[in-house]
């Protein structure tokens, strides 16, 4: 190691104390002058280069949530005792954990990997999956499924070829190699995401209560170990200014900003970690993601009851020219850090040997409440770990309702040019339905989902295009979970508060539609720059809206992620709060699929809920190039009542299939149910038109919330009607499943064959992406 | 027909999982002399006729733009091989 | 009720096995479908025995399944590194011995069997270059092997297809020989999903004890969790080998 250290002039703590005036590149590392001054104040001297590296990454927006912390607290505050009942681990850990009963628990989390996926789509998306899966492992859980909500620029923009092909094959290439079924997600195309695609990744894992692990370093004398892949220069491109820590210009400063994933290494890491948990060989564990060793050491130490001492030259390197600061900041993938008691060292090493995983012992837990990092014995970091990991800066950034918001909300679809000459005749309505289901956002996405393994594990009960992905956890009892992710950026742009609530409402509804009881929420808040008061207002409103709605629906937020600066110049993306709801199914055999099969012939089709004239922000308005007005009205009471109907009807065997109404309204929902298994239906709109005072066009394309379609066997109709009327929920009998017709007939309006629907629905992705 | 051979390697600082896996397998088969393995790609561009400077320049450009991804890969060699 | 999260190779089950047969399931680093294969073995009524790639003890198993996945990341070539595992040496010997140990290679397992030369030909990247996961219709061409005797020749079955390097290739002479000797076990029906020569989905060795195929029968053994959410056409692979083991060949 001495050879290596000679390459650098190591900036020790002693050196920092004796050379207070050395210029440090703190601004290039993204720190503001007040933040640098704060670091100097905390330390009582200038930071060393290595300390500067740690503080700069840990105090970044990405790691510290400094712009949003003050708002995010609402998720912890707006919680009832009832909501906390099954919450085993809440926000702040790697992922939240929810009790499922029978000694089982589930952990899930959604995260963004947006910007890396634009720079290098394949690796960006792949490492996004890798990172979220490691979060799940570090809770002590076996990962059991992944999902990926995606947003791209315009479908016909030339760069979408690069980004879509790269992202989809990256998610597949990594996730398929891990043996994790991909059970859903969503794909949206909108020019607003040009240059700022959103690649969010969700992972879910199952664990026994006793296997729960947390990221803390406790027990003086316990050993700290780094295992998995070696540390290279991945993801520190922006930090290459730290080359100056050597205070000479001889070393190569070119470092890749792109992280490269090795799914094989991750798969081995999963099995190896589970073996460690099973044998109780680790006291605490933390994955290495953003900010790498800086984050892992400071968080483990800050969450523990003592301190930590680490010798950095013990880190196994892929590139021997890395400086201490770079080693601390490296985001090399497929690495984990654990705390192991001395008694278990030998057994730990045996597991590493079995799986052929490299490891190195870095140091141990101390009782001095300091994080001390040495380089060949010389102290280069000596900090209170809480100041790095917990007590970072916090900003209450100025925000204000944009001055354009009123004009935007006043510009309704009906009053606009785009809202003239709407379809009226049967032929026009039929053409509009076909146009809708062929549109980039509503078209069939199996071009994407067939590149993902949805079967591996043998526990997938539902996957895309069903409303929610459903996986079994306990093969003996059938206990399992359903998850759905949703967001509508256009709604949130029109009204950021309501938009966030609508995202929750839809994912809640989707989970209930599958028959599961919603239990927990994880969110990925994708917004523009918090330094723009307009965007900051969207963000503050989004968090306020989502936290209010979670309280009203009784589902706690267990974790998530905030992704800011998704903008090009001063053009921000639409606020896009992606909400993932997880629900519990006592027996996944009871799950409700989103379409009817041939044997459902003659079953009654019911629409639950009422329809208003709500076309602002709708997919139909989007087809006409219009965005203005107010999004559909939020009615969480109605969502709750609808959810209860769907869950009870499924449990009591009253419904055979169900599909929620959301983007594209009734037209999209009916088409999708027919296309799910290619079985037709006959429906009439007369009853809902008369009851709700709307025309056929509005009945088909309005996006009113809290609605779903269900297919009810004839024998169950009386019970179903009794239940809905007892609960005061409005239903209308639309028609029947017709297995012979091979068509969707909207009586008095039009008949469209299954083949016509299929051709329109399935052609679009293939046309653009081959 | 002459061919232009283009060799592309991952940049030295980029992780090469393939090479790593192969390096791990070699000692198991008794090949103990190799410290590391990096796996690259070789492309053969066949030319109908003589390889002019202009065609070679085109090949170099194609190598930089299409055959390699400059974010993670380097073109390490472009050469003409006669048959 | 299961009270523990199973580890790889942990196939303990409270269900009593119907037959006394012990069927090994091999796990390499990067194997993905080993738990599925073990579940299929159990569903057929046999005991699943975990075989670790680095071990050399076949543990007296009566047959072996080499499941799918991305062993060693499929780096170099799919199956190329796994083929040299100590356990594979034992399996190759036992398959070629007079005892003719039945061996089924699924997907990556098929690739390992071709790299091991237990089966001819090889697999290259799908002709459309993408990973593909779909419900796939196959025609049973040979119902006389250890793993297919429960089917009827000409029968069409639907199981899961999912692969990246699934295009079966061999020289014309080998392909002619396979067809002439009835060693094509399964063909793709309708669309050829990966460009395989002569739509070959699976083949056997001359003795019929070794079968390899790209699609996944182990993902089609339980209603509600397989093709079209209910297909169980794959279970017959695992019941066939039990029939074979008790001498009940057709």
TrEMBL record, chain A:
Mg(2+) 2 binds at residues 135, 287. It comes from the Bacteria. Keywords: ATP-binding, Cytoplasm, Ligase, Magnesium, Metal-binding, Nucleotide-binding, Purine biosynthesis. Substrate binds at residues 134, 259, 331-333, 563. Residues 220-375, 601-741 form the PurM-like C-terminal domain. Transmembrane segments: none annotated. The keyword Transit peptide does not apply. Its main location: cytoplasm. The keyword Cytoplasm applies. The active site is at residues 62, 113. It catalyses: N(2)-formyl-N(1)-(5-phospho-beta-D-ribosyl)glycinamide + L-glutamine + ATP + H2O = 2-formamido-N(1)-(5-O-phospho-beta-D-ribosyl)acetamidine + L-glutamate + ADP + phosphate + H(+). Mg(2+) 1 binds at residues 111, 561. NCBIfam families: FGAM_synth_II (TIGR01736), PRK01213.1 (NF002290). Belongs to the FGAMS family. Part of the phosphoribosylformylglycinamidine synthase complex involved in the purines biosynthetic pathway. Catalyzes the ATP-dependent conversion of formylglycinamide ribonucleotide (FGAR) and glutamine to yield formylglycinamidine ribonucleotide (FGAM) and glutamate. The FGAM synthase complex is composed of three subunits. PurQ produces an ammonia molecule by converting glutamine to glutamate. PurL transfers the ammonia molecule to FGAR to form FGAM in an ATP-dependent manner. Monomer. Part of the FGAM synthase complex composed of 1 PurL, 1 PurQ and 2 PurS subunits. This is Phosphoribosylformylglycinamidine synthase subunit PurL. The gene is purL.
From TrEMBL, chain B:
Keywords: ATP-binding, Cytoplasm, Ligase, Nucleotide-binding, Purine biosynthesis. SUPFAM superfamilies: PurS-like. InterPro entries: PurS (IPR003850), PurS-like_sf (IPR036604). GO terms for molecular function: phosphoribosylformylglycinamidine synthase activity. Pfam families: PurS. It is found in: Cytoplasm. Its EC number is 6.3.5.3. It comes from the Bacteria. The keyword Nucleotide-binding applies. It catalyses: N(2)-formyl-N(1)-(5-phospho-beta-D-ribosyl)glycinamide + L-glutamine + ATP + H2O = 2-formamido-N(1)-(5-O-phospho-beta-D-ribosyl)acetamidine + L-glutamate + ADP + phosphate + H(+). Pathway: Purine metabolism; IMP biosynthesis via de novo pathway; 5-amino-1-(5-phospho-D-ribosyl)imidazole from N(2)-formyl-N(1)-(5-phospho-D-ribosyl)glycinamide: step 1/2. Its main location: cytoplasm. Part of the phosphoribosylformylglycinamidine synthase complex involved in the purines biosynthetic pathway. Catalyzes the ATP-dependent conversion of formylglycinamide ribonucleotide (FGAR) and glutamine to yield formylglycinamidine ribonucleotide (FGAM) and glutamate. The FGAM synthase complex is composed of three subunits. PurQ produces an ammonia molecule by converting glutamine to glutamate. PurL transfers the ammonia molecule to FGAR to form FGAM in an ATP-dependent manner. Part of the FGAM synthase complex composed of 1 PurL, 1 PurQ and 2 PurS subunits. Belongs to the PurS family. PANTHER family: PHOSPHORIBOSYLFORMYLGLYCINAMIDINE SYNTHASE SUBUNIT PURS. This is Phosphoribosylformylglycinamidine synthase subunit PurS.
UniProtKB/TrEMBL annotation, chain C:
SUPFAM superfamilies: Class I glutamine amidotransferase-like (SSF52317). SMART domains: GATase_5. Part of the phosphoribosylformylglycinamidine synthase complex involved in the purines biosynthetic pathway. Catalyzes the ATP-dependent conversion of formylglycinamide ribonucleotide (FGAR) and glutamine to yield formylglycinamidine ribonucleotide (FGAM) and glutamate. The FGAM synthase complex is composed of three subunits. PurQ produces an ammonia molecule by converting glutamine to glutamate. PurL transfers the ammonia molecule to FGAR to form FGAM in an ATP-dependent manner. Keywords: ATP-binding, Cytoplasm, Glutamine amidotransferase, Hydrolase, Ligase, Nucleotide-binding, Purine biosynthesis. This is Phosphoribosylformylglycinamidine synthase subunit PurQ. InterPro entries: Class_I_gatase-like, PRibForGlyAmidine_synth_PurQ. The gene is purQ. Its EC number is 6.3.5.3, 3.5.1.2. It is found in: Cytoplasm. The active site is at 107 (nucleophile), 216, 218. Part of the FGAM synthase complex composed of 1 PurL, 1 PurQ and 2 PurS subunits. It comes from Glutamicibacter protophormiae. NCBIfam families: FGAM_synth_I, PRK03619.1. Pfam families: GATase_5. One of its GO terms (molecular function) is phosphoribosylformylglycinamidine synthase activity. Its main location: cytoplasm. Pathway: Purine metabolism; IMP biosynthesis via de novo pathway; 5-amino-1-(5-phospho-D-ribosyl)imidazole from N(2)-formyl-N(1)-(5-phospho-D-ribosyl)glycinamide: step 1/2. It catalyses: N(2)-formyl-N(1)-(5-phospho-beta-D-ribosyl)glycinamide + L-glutamine + ATP + H2O = 2-formamido-N(1)-(5-O-phospho-beta-D-ribosyl)acetamidine + L-glutamate + ADP + phosphate + H(+); L-glutamine + H2O = L-glutamate + NH4(+).
């Amino acid at each position: 190691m001495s050879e290596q250290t000679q390459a650098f002039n190591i900036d020790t703590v002693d050196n920092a104390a004796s050379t207070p005036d050395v210029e440090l590149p703190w601004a290039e590392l993204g720190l503001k002058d007040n933040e640098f001054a704060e670091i100097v104040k905390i330390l009582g001297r200038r930071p060393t280069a290595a300390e500067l590296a740690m503080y700069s990454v840990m105090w970044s927006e990405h790691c510290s949530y400094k712009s949003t912390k003050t708002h995010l607290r609402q998720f912890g505050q707006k919680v009832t005792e009832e909501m906390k009942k099954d919450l085993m681990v809440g926000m702040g850990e790697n992922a939240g954990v929810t009790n499922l009963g029978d000694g089982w628990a589930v952990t899930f989390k959604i995260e963004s990997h947006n910007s890396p996926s634009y720079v290098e789509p394949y690796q960006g998306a792949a490492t996004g999956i890798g990172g979220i899966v490691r979060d799940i492992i570090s809770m002590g859980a076996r990962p059991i499924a992944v999902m990926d909500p995606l947003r791209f620029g315009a479908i016909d923009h030339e760069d979408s070829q690069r980004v879509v092909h790269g992202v989809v094959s990256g998610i597949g290439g990594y996730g398929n190699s891990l043996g994790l079924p991909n059970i859903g997600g969503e794909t949206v195309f909108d020019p607003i995401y040009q240059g700022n695609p959103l690649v969010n990744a969700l992972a879910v894992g199952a664990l026994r209560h006793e296997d729960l692990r947390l990221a803390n370093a406790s027990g003086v004398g316990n050993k700290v170990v780094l295992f998995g892949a070696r540390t290279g220069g991945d993801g520190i491109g922006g930090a290459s200014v730290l080359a100056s820590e050597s205070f000479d210009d001889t070393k190569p400063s070119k470092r890749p900003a792109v992280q490269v994933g090795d799914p094989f290494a991750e798969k081995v890491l999963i099995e190896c970690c589970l073996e460690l948990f099973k044998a109780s060989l680790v006291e605490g564990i933390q994955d290495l993601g953003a900010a790498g060793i800086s984050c892992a050491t400071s968080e483990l130490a800050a969450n523990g009851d003592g301190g930590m001492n680490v010798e950095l030259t013990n880190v196994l390197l892929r590139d021997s020219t890395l400086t201490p600061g770079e080693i601390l900041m490296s985001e090399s993938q497929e690495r984990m850090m654990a705390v192991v008691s001395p008694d278990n060292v030998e057994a730990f090493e045996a597991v590493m040997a079995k799986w052929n995983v490299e490891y190195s012992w870095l140091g141990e837990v101390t009782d001095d409440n300091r994080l001390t990092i040495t380089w060949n014995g010389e102290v280069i970091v000596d900090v209170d770990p809480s100041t790095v990991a917990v007590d970072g800066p916090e900003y209450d950034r100025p925000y204000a309702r944009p001055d354009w918001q009123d004009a935007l909300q006043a510009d309704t679809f009906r009053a606009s040019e785009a809202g003239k000459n709407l379809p009226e005749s049967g032929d026009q309505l039929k053409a509009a339905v076909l146009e809708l289901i062929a549109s980039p956002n509503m078209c069939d996405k199996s071009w994407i989902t067939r590149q993902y393994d949805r079967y591996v594990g043998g526990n997938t009960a539902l996957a895309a295009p069903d409303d929610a992905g459903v996986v079994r956890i306990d093969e003996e009892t059938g206990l399992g979970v359903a998850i759905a992710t949703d967001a509508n950026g256009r709604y949130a742009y029109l009204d950021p508060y309501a938009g966030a609530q609508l995202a929750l409402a839809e994912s809640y509804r989707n989970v209930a539609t599958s028959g599961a009881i919603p239990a927990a929420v994880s969110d990925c808040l994708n917004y523009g720059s918090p330094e723009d008061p307009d965007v900051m207002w969207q963000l503050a409103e989004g968090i306020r809206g989502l936290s209010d709605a979670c309280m009203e629906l009784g589902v706690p937020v267990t974790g998530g992620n905030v992704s800011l600066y998704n903008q090009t110049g001063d053009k921000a993306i639409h606020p896009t709060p992606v909400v993932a709801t997880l629900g519990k199914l006592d027996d996944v055999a009871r799950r409700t699929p989103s379409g009817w099969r041939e044997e459902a012939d003659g079953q009654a089709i019911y629409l639950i809920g009422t329809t208003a004239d709500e076309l602002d922000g709708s997919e139909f308005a989007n087809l006409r190039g219009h965005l203005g007005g107010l999004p559909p009205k939020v009615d969480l009471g109605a969502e709750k009542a609808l959810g209860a109907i769907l869950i009870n009807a499924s449990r009591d065997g009253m419904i055979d299939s169900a599909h929620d109404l959301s983007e594209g309204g009734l037209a999209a929902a009916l088409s999708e149910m027919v296309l799910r298994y290619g079985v037709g239906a006959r429906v009439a709109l007369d009853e809902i038109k008369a009851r709700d005072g709307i025309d056929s066009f509005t009945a088909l394309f309005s996006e009113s919330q809290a609605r779903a379609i269900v297919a009810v066997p004839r024998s169950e109709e009386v019970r179903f009607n009794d239940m809905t009327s007892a609960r005061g929920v409005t239903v209308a009998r639309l028609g029947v499943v017709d297995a012979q017709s091979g068509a969707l007939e909207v009586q008095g309006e039009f008949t469209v064959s299954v083949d016509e629907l299929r051709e329109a629905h399935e052609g679009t992705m293939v046309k653009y992406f081959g | 027909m002459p061919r232009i051979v283009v060799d592309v390697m991952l940049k030295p600082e980029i992780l090469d999982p393939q090479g790593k896996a192969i390096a791990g397998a070699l000692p198991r088969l008794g090949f103990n002399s190799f410290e590391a393995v990096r796996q690259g790609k070789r492309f053969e561009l066949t030319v109908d006729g003589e390889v002019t400077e202009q065609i070679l320049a085109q090949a170099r450009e194609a190598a930089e733009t299409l055959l390699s991804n400059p974010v993670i890969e380097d073109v390490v060699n472009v050469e003409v091989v006669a048959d | 009720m299961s009270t523990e999260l199973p580890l790889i190779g942990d196939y303990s089950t409270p269900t009593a096995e119907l037959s006394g047969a012990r069927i090994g399931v091999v796990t390499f680093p990067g194997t993905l479908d080993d738990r599925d294969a073990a579940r299929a073995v159990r569903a057929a009524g046999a005991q699943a025995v975990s075989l670790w790639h680095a071990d050399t003890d076949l543990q007296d198993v009566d047959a072996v399944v080499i499941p799918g996945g991305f062993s060693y990341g499929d780096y170099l070539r799919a199956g190329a590194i796994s083929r040299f595992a100590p356990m594979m040496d034992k399996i190759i010997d036992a398959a070629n011995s007079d005892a003719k140990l039945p061996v089924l290679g699924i997907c990556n397992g098929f690739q390992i069997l071709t790299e091991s030369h237990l089966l001819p030909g090889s697999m290259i990247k799908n002709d459309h270059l993408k990973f593909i996961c779909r419900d796939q219709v196959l025609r049973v061409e040979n119902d006389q092997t250890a793993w297919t005797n429960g089917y009827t020749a000409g029968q069409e079955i639907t199981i899961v297809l999912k692969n990246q390097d699934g295009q079966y290739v061999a020289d014309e002479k080998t392909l002619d020989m396979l067809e002439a000797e009835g060693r094509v076990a399964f063909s793709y029906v309708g669309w050829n999903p990966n460009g395989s020569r002569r739509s070959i989905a699976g083949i056997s060795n001359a003795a019929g004890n070794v079968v390899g195929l790209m699609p996944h029968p182990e993902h089609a053994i339980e209603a509600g969790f397989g093709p079209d959410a209910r297909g169980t056409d794959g279970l017959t692979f695992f019941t066939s080998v039990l029939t074979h083991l008790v001498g009940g060949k057709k």
